[in-house]
Specification:
alpha+beta, 124 residues, six-stranded antiparallel β-sheet
Amino acid sequence: MKNKNDNDFASTFISLKNILKKYEKHLTVISDKPKNYNLNAGYDEKRRADIYFGGVVINKNYVSFHLMPVYVNPKLLEGISPGLRKRMQGKSCFNFKKVDKELFKELSNLTKQGFEFYKINWML
């Protein structure tokens, strides 16, 4: 039997994925599955590693939105709302159980700032 959260989580996943999809043409999709979507920002010769940008994952109890630019540059988090900060787990993860248009709009703006930061620092 399907759980009510399944529908909430699916719509939450799609809404959060759409925030990241705007950057697909500049980034590399490394996973695009029904419960897991991830983007890389390219390869860093200095570190000899791929640069992770962000992703969305449906977990058991919530949907996680990962945004690595806020880990790399915590100053991006200055001025975020208490509501969005409350959704943070760790240094670069935001958890949601359902769509929150206001917080998703703020998260979309934060993602744009993160993309611009990556663009300047890694010349995407």
